[in-house]
Amino acid sequence: METLLCINRREREEQRDLVANDQEYNAKFNYVNNEIKTSRYTWYNFIILNLWEQLHRVVNVYFIVLLILQYIPQISSLNPTTTLIPIVLVLAITAVKDAVDDINRHKSDHSVNTRKSRMLKNGELTKEQWKNINVGNVIKLRNNEHVTADLLLLSTSEEHHLAYVETAELDGETNLKVRQALPETGEMGEDVNQLCQFNGAVKCEPPNNQLHKFTGNLYWNNQTYSIDNQSILLRGCILRNTQWCYGLVIFAGADTKLMQNTGKTMLKRTSIERLMNRLVWFIFMFLLLMATVAAIGNSVWETWTGVNFQLFMPWESYSPNPQMSGFLMFWSYIIILNTVVPISLYVSIEFIRLGQSFFINWDRLMFYDKKNLPAVARTTTLNEELGQIEYVFSDKTGTLTQNIMEFNKCTIAGKRYGDARAKDGTMVYPHEYNIVDLSFNEYAEKNFHFYDHKLIEVITSGDEDCALFFRLIAICHTVMPDESEDGRLVYQAQSPDEGALVSAARNFGFVFKSRTYDTVTILEQGKAVEYKVLAILDFDNVRKRMSVIVQDPQGKIMLMCKGADTVIYERLKEDTDEQFKAQTTEHLDEFAGTGLRTLCLAVKALDQNTFNVWKHAHDQASTALEDREDKLNAVYEEIERDLTLIGATAIEDKLQDGVPETIANLTKANIKIWVLTGDKQETAINIGYSCNMLTESMKNVFIITGYEPEEVEKSIQEAIDEIGRPSAPDSQDDLRTPGKNVMQYIKTKVVNTSRVANGVATPHINNTNEQESYGLVIGGHSLAHALIKDLELKFLELASHCSAVICCRVTPLQKAQVVDLVKRNKKAVTLAIGDGANDVSMIKAAHIGVGISGEEGTQAVLSSDFALGQFRYLERLLLVHGRWSYMRMCKFFGYFFYKNFAFTLVQFWYGIYNGFTAQSTYDDWFVTLYNIVYTSTPIFILALLEQDLNDDYSIRYPKLYLPGQKNELFNIPIFLKSIIWGIITSIILFFIPYGAFAQGMAPTGLDMTDRQTVSTVISTCLILVVTLQVALVTSFWTPVNHFFIWGSIVIFFIFTFALHSSGLYNLITTQFPFVGVATNAYSYPATWFTVLLVIAICILPMVAFRFVHNALYPHYNQQIQKIQMKEKKLSKMKTSESISTLDLFRTKLHLKRRTSRPKSGYAFSHERGFGNLITSGRMSMRKKNGTSTENSPQKVVEETPAPGPSKNSRNEGVVTESYKELPI
User: Fold this and answer.
1) N or C: which end of the chain has fewer CB within 10 A?
2) Which residues bind Mg(2+) (predicted)?
3) What pLDDT, on the 0 to 100 scale, is given for residue 544?
4) What's the structural domain count of the chain?
């Protein structure tokens, strides 16, 4: 099989060894080239492999075996073509669908592999397709081009050999990263001759998935140079704001870190499909039991009775005795009873799923107008699984957020600014006419919107506090200024937070104009002021602050600091005005309470002597050979004290429309949402609060930041102990087995959905006080230890107790590992949603993958099962389409087994009277058409159109979603109920007509007791009974339902009269033996009396049971149906006063703004800034270099369209007082 898949096994690498421009040397190691392959088949192995995969379905093997048996004339009483055509059709339809999917993957691979790149070859640059690039080649990249492979940066067009890259497809971050070539290789520049002669040898780590780590050495000119991640360009990055660069291919194709993080493509099956495979075995065992009983019965009959008919019915030569006859009848009954699982079941399933997929694609309420993107079901096999999701794993950047930072509010000297106010000072809703006029500032950006006119008045009046506030913002950062070709000032920010702050200062008249390694030039209200930069105390995740020490033109030295409020407040001078601090704290509470990201600003005046002493200590620490970082932090701590508070900023990390409401509603549906993001901890926590995942009502939010396994284990155990729940299970088996220890607690305490589906009007929800809920935040370095075998179950236990889980700074592979951990240890359906290449492995690992068509490329969408334009559409995809699809499929399965057991078991009961000789009760044409024509369309239409409640109510009452999570609408007990009722129906269908006609006589005096007449009566009773059963289970009646349900009965009678006509009999006598039977049978009053009696006995008890059950023990959805009916009636009476159902619903959902903020609303740069590069003189502003940034607006703090108001794309309806009757 591996040969068919073209898998070439390579020995595991211990070290990568290569020489630049030496293909002969590199070829010895058999490194892969740069071609990638995500497709599964080739033209020559498709038929064999696809057939092999389809034979993994037990049911396909089952039908092929039956087909073979039907070709044995000694045991078959049915025409083999009745099975051959359906099985070929099923295999062909599935093969075509798989072929189309794989062709799309081939096209995707081809589009990537045939991209062109410039490669040094034979002393010149030539264009080569990506797939022809090999390890050791030197290639050239230009601005805005994708990085071809994992490269060692050799030289660039920029000063100090710098290059700027966007890593959105790798880690989801859209801010630019800086990479720097080694000075020794950077001197080659773009000299093609030198680059062609470059023969450096590289020895480095083998291929791996560590995105933020690289270890290796370059050996060149008898020197050894250390290589780290700062010199590596990874495949998946995009070169930005750099005219050109050259790189040496280290890893290519499947060995690149991007592909190493992609994860394997797995064949996904729904839980219902997996259950079906188990049920097929059960049915097969039941079939064997019935065939065995029939075989024994035939042997007994032949021994006692059949032997008496030897004279005119001699035994065949192949059946010389009763025992052999019984053996042959065993196989005959296997064939004649095989319709308990007809092949048409699987044909119907494929078409039903296809129809449901079209409904998803056609849903206008999931159409994203801004980008003209509809929802797309990229697979047709997982629709019902959407109604069973219990865990959602979501990326953050681009999935929950727009990754757009906007300066929103601020507090300066105890005064709050940023609220839109009317002329009388009262706060109003921001509108376009409230936007402040910034025309006095020629550098103001057109897309910058601010609504508080008071701040402009204070700034223009020359207020010193405001001037100092914005001066600090304009100076204290590591942003790099640049000029585009048309002379526009643009900024390159390491963090979108910094970009938003510097942009705000610019718009308020404090324009960051230029910088060198030791100066910063600011335009303060049009006047250029140059500040000398004496030191930059760079940001990191431990310090949570950054500072600069500058000297103004008058010679005054000042330290300017910005950082988290908790960090800044600890370092304020003792005589700070307490009222000022209290006012600022109150404003910070209000800012953080609305989900804004906050930073505190402070300053400190320094005299020359103090600075000189500190500078000497700083120089010594910065040159220390041991513990350099710790010594520098101590020096920083020494100067960053006795600060003077001046204010705080509040930045909005704009969420996508409807994200908080969607998360709140999905949470009410008992769906646990975990955020897995590459962003840093503070950013993730702030988004958690903004999305209503984390709330102030939580008893505690556990933050795990350990770097060693022991630290992580200790933190997890302490958190579990604080929760006060049962300790970790003694073994993995205990945790994985339902009903034991923690898992039993989780399954019974979180939501007891069995009471929803089994007759109780309202769901039984855990009574735990909301104040006792918990949150969990864990970093990537800690998660790496938490996912080891000895600790993963304890981590899962803790996470299961928390209502919100956020994993930050995680790699793409870690995302997949978290998903896999839940899949392996919890019997729950998982969904992963993301928008970037860094989410692909997670999307592939989950039961269902959803791709957001976002700003980070299309890799996530191409790997997904469903594609959406916005995260908010996930609510409708699950609560509406998912719930409907699951409910429809469950009704379909329950009814299908019922009608086929009722149909098939009649054959068994008839065997009692024919010596178990496998004689068919029915006309062969009736057997052929029963599942294909007579009973297929009513249930097919029900499975496509059924709605117990409309989409509006499905969203309003998310607890309607709960039964699907525990497979409560179709499971083994419900299956057994269906087949038991089918067996009872078959008994009624056979014995009542048989009893009515056994001694019957027609009015003409003729005997009515013949097999064909009884067969026709039984067939008529069967069709009417099973069709009326469909009508009973239908909740949503449309003209289409009426047409196909009642039309199927008409079709039955039309076909019956046609097949029993003399015309067809005369045409092919042997194929139509029931000539004239229908006309005769339907002319007997006894026939119609029998039909009515059978219908009454089969249908009336079911009607009575449902009436009593619905009256005394209504299901939750039936209670909502009553509300829907009441509101419909009232809406007709009060049409003019109708209001939007969803508007009121959303009002109910909106959580109150937190009255207190989290420990900090602070969030800042994703990683260490450019401070070291700036102060070392290796980075400076670049004047017009011809590099246009037009193609990368997300990297530039420039003109972007103002986001419009949030749109609610829900249906509208009417709300009445009955809305309060049930919990949402």
Assistant:
1) N
2) 395, 397, 835, 839
3) 81
4) 4
